[in-house]
Amino acid sequence: MDHKSQWHERLFGQQLLKCETNSSKSGDFLCVATSEVLQNVQITGVYFSFANISQQSDDFTKKLKLLYEKLNQENCQIKKFQVVQVVLWANNDVFSDFENSHRDSLVGLPWFAVPFSEIDLKTRLSRRYRIKSGVPTLVLLDRDGGTISVSAQDRLLEDPLGTSFPWRPRPVDQVLKDVVLQKGGTFSKEHPCTKSEDFRYSDLPDAVRGFYFSANWCPPCRAFTPQLAEVYRLIRKKEPGFEIVFVSSDRSAESFGASVEAMPWLVVPWQQAGVRAELAQLYGIRGIPTLLLLDRNGHIITMDARTELAEDPMAQNFPWKPRAVNILTERFANKLHDYPAIVLFVDGEETELQFAESVLSPAADSYYKTHNINFNSAPEDFFSNCEVDHYLQFLIGLDSETSDILRDLIGLDDVAPLLVAIDIPNRRFAVMEYGVEITVDAVSDFVERFQKGDVKFTELNERVGEEHN
Questions:
Q1: pTM here?
Q2: E strands in 234-288
Q3: Taking Cα atoms as reference points, which of 311, 266, 306 lies closest to residue 290?
Q4: Do 154 and 136 form a contact (C-beta atoms < 8 A)?
Q5: 214: part of which helix (H) or strand (E)?
């Protein structure tokens, strides 16, 4: 199997259920090899539905089924559109009889589904595409597993006959091409040398750009906006070309006016409702406030600049490009449930941090290069492009609450430096032998032995998995 075809199994596992083969008597679905289902498909739709909000999911399912049948009328060797359904459970209801609900929501459909038992796989898919609980979502992928759209459900509702399918999104410069951007309330004060009244996206300096999705009715947004304004000023002292464009989710012109009153950046005008909606679809915005950053070529640097800002309020690491080695914060600790990690615990002194980076970075760089892991991939494509089943994190555990919690959960000795391989997906961990000096070569050797399973593993206790779910 070549590299391009491997994404099928990395994303969906080795087998899928064939929904139309279900017998109401036996309740069984036929299992088919994932690669067989998707190898000759032009566009794959990943449909996230929710078994316990059946009306909302059922309505969308009917529309998707009509489109599916229309696009696949021709019986040719290359299938134009295939759907893989991922049945989830909205967390606003009791977890009861999920297996029967899962089966009932798939019976008779013309496509395929991820098996009920693949709970961890579904969780990873949901996190990868940032699925919001209770919102039926359609993600479209091209033949190589690259993401076309993370919110195609909106386009289907607008274009039920699929006239413009697969609704490839326009790049941001095209979306904003004819839009005259509005100045925020304090823009002129912050940009005293700027005289132009007719601002367009194409006029902005060739530099990093931010898009801020927010609304005045949202309390977290009202709290974050002043923080962002302060950091915006800090960044512009170092990077005067940096600019932010505000995309409002306000529900009235009055609310919109309150939002922009104290903003020192540019704004998509309230009247441009279609443009604001298209930008939200383009970047798959699931909630607000969201701050994303683009590089000078329009490629996403980070979708989570809000968290980056919270962890780096002086913007010392701006523009927060993905790094091979990261500090163990709550954000990275949350990923431990899905992906194993090499963690070096050290004291919180600056010299210890530098030491940790110096011994971890060569091993991390070598690992990512060997396994074709590209940090410049779009967030939702990052893991599907890897050649390995598990992405391995490299983390530095400083003297912090997050480190303490993780040590207590696993039962690690309170010593530093301490090098540990933590593999929560497989419920195990391994500690580098005490007394071995932690050097570049020692870390690389430990990483290599961990991959081969040639280290002394200790089983994790049950409560670790529970705490990370």
A1: 0.84
A2: 243-248, 266-267
A3: 306
A4: no
A5: strand 209-214
